[in-house]
Amino acid sequence: MTVKPVLRVARADLDVLEAIDHYLEEAPHAVEAFVDALDETYGRIARDPGLGSPRYAHELDLPGLRHWRCRKFPYLVFYREADDCILILRVLHGLRDIPQRMRDAD
User: Fold this and answer.
1) What are phi and psi of 92, to 5 degrees?
2) pTM higher than 0.85 for the full model?
3) At what angle do helices 10-26 and 31-47 cross, to 10 degrees?
């Protein structure tokens, strides 16, 4: 089994920082568990990129887009598999308007 490196775009890192800020304000005890769950999610995706759901790929006209949920947290990691890596595009709260948030470039 080939494990591809996981690369995050700047927007995905910003999403994670926003989630951490939220947890620091609302549930500081959960920050470390969130970061661990996110790392675990990245690892699972790297080992088996095909496991994520392609649910939003057609709706957003983003071929190859998949997502996988963080264990114990309501965040979805959106990614694409490239030839040499896994590209993490966004990390979004699952109860938000996902199509609108995916279209937001800011």
Assistant:
1) -125, 145
2) yes
3) 150
Do the Cβ atoms of 75 and 30 come closer than 8 Å? no
Domain span at residue 70 reads 6-103
CB 66, CB 105: distance < 8 Å: no
* Mean pLDDT in residue range 48-70: 93
Instruction: Look at residue 88 and tell me if it is in a domain.
Output: yes
Tell me the CATH number at 16: 3.30.2310.20
Nearest to 21 by CA among 91, 97, 104: 91
Tell me whether residue 1 is in a domain. no
pLDDT (tens digit per residue) in 61-89? 899 999 999 999 999 999 999 999 999 99
Structural domains in the chain (count): 1
